[in-house]
Each structure stands twice: as C-alpha cells, then as structure tokens.
Amino acid sequence: AAMALRAVVLGPPGSGKGTVCERIARRFGLPRLSSGRFLRQSLRHGGELGLAGRAEGSLQRGRAAPRGSHIFSGGKRHIPAAHGVCPRAPAGFPRTLGQAEALDRICEPDLVISLHVPFETLKDRLSARWVHPASGRVYNMDFNPPHVHGRDDVTGEPLVQRDDDRPDAVAVRLRKYKEAAKPVIELYRSRGVLHSFSGTETNKIWPYVYALLCSKIPPVRAEEEN
C-alpha cells in the first residue's frame, strides 16, 4: 500500500515535540519512527529503498542519528524493521540541511510541523530537567517532579542534570539549533509543506496541530480522550 502520510515534527530542545508526537501516534494511529533506527535500517536496505551511496555520506556528515527523533508514516511499505517508539524528545530531525536532503532520498515528507516556543520558556524548561541515568527516566521540576526531591520514583537512586541541560549550556544549544534549523525550515516552507505553531504551552498548541492533521487524515480516537 502507498503511504498515506509522512510527517516530521521539528522544534528546538524543550519545545514539546515528545508530547505532540505521542498524541499524534495515539490519536491517528500512525507508527512513530525513531529516525536513528529508521535511517540505519534504510541504509542497510539501500537497494530496496533506492539509496545512492552519497546519501549515506550525507547522513554521516549530518550526524543523522541524533538521540531519537520524530518521523511518522501512514504505511509500512519500504520501511523494513523501522518501527519503534522514540525514548524521549530530542533536538528535532532533520536538524541540518544535509540531513533534510538525505531524508529526501529515503522518503520526502508530506507534512512538516514546526514548533516555536519563546527562548526564555525553553531555557526554563530545559534547566528544570533531571534524569535517572540508568533508566533514562526524565523529570521536570516544574511539570512532573519526582515524589522525593532529587530521587528516582522507581529505584530511589539520585537524579542528575545532564551537562547540556545546565543553564549556560542550554543557551548555546538553542542558538546552535536556531542557526542549523533555519535553512531546513526555509526548505520545507518553499515546498509548501511547512506548518508552524507558536506558543508557550503544548496543551494550547496541540488543538491547532490536531485540526491540521484532521484535515489530512481521519483520527482513530476522539480528541476528548486526552
């Protein structure tokens, strides 16, 4: 069967991509693909997917296996063994023009959702994030704090703050993302597939994302089931 929809969700670290992607997967029944696994599998099946050798070079130069990402596909053909749920929200994929061009050789997105959140909001969100290293469980001291301050809910072990979530590092990360993402966003805007959504709260952005997707494909679950 042909693909019904191929969508990518872009946004800086802390913009709520993970939440948006979970809701898309649940509401519309679309497989959520880990781009790292998807691209590695695609490269291994290069003949079937028609990948040129230069695509692999672009992926490698573009560091095309970031720590997770968000790609959806409405069909299963040409995506061997690529299905899986992303463990958490990463910096968006494709993050660079090289990655976008390499992704085109695998599957050209039908729809690109770009999330825009104010710098100060992102900085506050990321600086409030702590993790349990062994499991990867993520806590946010503002939205979902641990039951015991500084301790993992399941094991009771100490939580740590990643170096790149420290306030000084966050500002650098966001600047780098903005610089790298600008040509990617312009590329998709020029194709007419880019849809941008702005706000400080995911719950307020989500209804507009939901309405957009409903205009493309029917939901499999009612919006009331939140």
Blueprint of the fold:
Elements: E1 6-10, H1 17-28, E2 32-33, H2 35-44, H3 46-49, H4 53-61, E3 71-73, H5 97-106, E4 111-116, H6 119-127, E5 129-132, E6 137-140, H7 167-191, E7 194-198, H8 202-214
Parallel strand pairs: 1-4, 4-7
Antiparallel strand pairs: 1-3, 2-3, 5-6
Helix pairs in contact: 1-8, 4-5, 6-7
Keywords: Kinase, Nucleotide-binding, Transferase
GO molecular function, one term: ATP binding
Domain Adenylate kinase active site lid: 129-164
CATH superfamily: P-loop containing nucleotide triphosphate hydrolases
Can you tell me the CATH class? Alpha Beta
Q: What's the pLDDT, averaged over the residues?
A: 75
> What's the alpha carbon Rg, rounded to whole Å?
18 Å
What's the overall geometry? globular
Largest sheet: 5 strands, mixed
Q: Give the helix proportion (percent range).
A: 40-55%
> Helices and strands, in N-to-C order?
EHEHHHEHEHEEHEH
The helix tally amounts to: 8
**Poorly predicted parts:** 47-69, 74-91
Proportion of beta-strand residues? 5-15%
The neighbouring-strand order within the major sheet is: 2-3-1-4-7
CATH topology group: Rossmann fold
Keywords: Kinase, Nucleotide-binding, Transferase
GO molecular function: AMP kinase activity; ATP binding
Protein name: KAD4 kinase
Pfam families: ADK, ADK_lid
Structural description of this entry:
- Pfam families: ADK, ADK_lid.
- It comes from Nothoprocta ornata.
- One of its GO terms (molecular function) is ATP binding.
- Strand 5 and strand 6 form a beta hairpin.
- The two termini are 30 Å apart.
- The longest helix is centred in the C-terminal third of the chain and has 25 residues, at 167-191.
- The protein is α/β, with parallel strands linked by helices.
- The strands form 2 sheets. Strands 2-3-1-4-7 form a 5-stranded mixed beta sheet. A two-stranded antiparallel sheet has the order 5-6.
- Helix 6 packs across helix 7.
- The protein has a single domain (5-215), classed as Rossmann fold (3-Layer(aba) Sandwich).
- The chain has helices at residues 17-28, 35-44, 46-49, 53-61, 97-106, 119-127, 167-191, 202-214, and strands at 6-10, 32-33, 71-73, 111-116, 129-132, 137-140, 194-198.
- The protein is built from 8 helices and 7 strands.
